[in-house]
Amino acid sequence: MGNLAITGREPLFTPCTPKGCIELLLRAGVEITGKKAVVIGRSNIVGLPTSLLLQRHHATVTVVHAFTENSKQVTCEADIVVAAAGLPNLVRGDWIKPGAVVIDIGTTPVEDPSCEDGYRLVGDVCYEEAVSVASIITPVPGGVGPMTVAMLLLNTLDAAKRILNFA
């Protein structure tokens, strides 16, 4: 984590989910440089490394957490919102600045008798409300999850290259 935070240093491996989020933004053609980004959640595995990666891409990053006052107001100003709090439907449509890009990392099982397994996965963002406000939004499931798997494979490939002394 320290190497991720220090300019000019590279971590041995970048955590897969944050790495996947940045890759999603880049592949979608989202301009990160100079944009206001809000990361909701500050866990060591997702929130913190995501905020550091966004800073590496020259975004102005604010981290919102359980003790942040006016979380809604702070989030409303963001061009990029990354929700990683683990609280289903925390971020409502009125939290999103029109045209903002929303990356929903949260996946929480919520009881739903109409589903085959008796539950469904719900993100941290209320998709039904946010989809009409955001310019881009990742679904749950099927958004960040596959990117996490892809980045795990990339990290595995990088590890094999290191062991075999490939460039």
TrEMBL record:
The keyword Hydrolase applies. Residues 15-162 form the Tetrahydrofolate dehydrogenase/cyclohydrolase NAD(P)-binding domain. Pfam families: THF_DHG_CYH_C (PF02882). SUPFAM superfamilies: NAD(P)-binding Rossmann-fold domains. Keywords: Hydrolase, Oxidoreductase. Gene3D superfamilies: NAD(P)-binding Rossmann-like Domain. It comes from the Eukaryota. This is Bifunctional protein FolD 1, mitochondrial, variant 2.
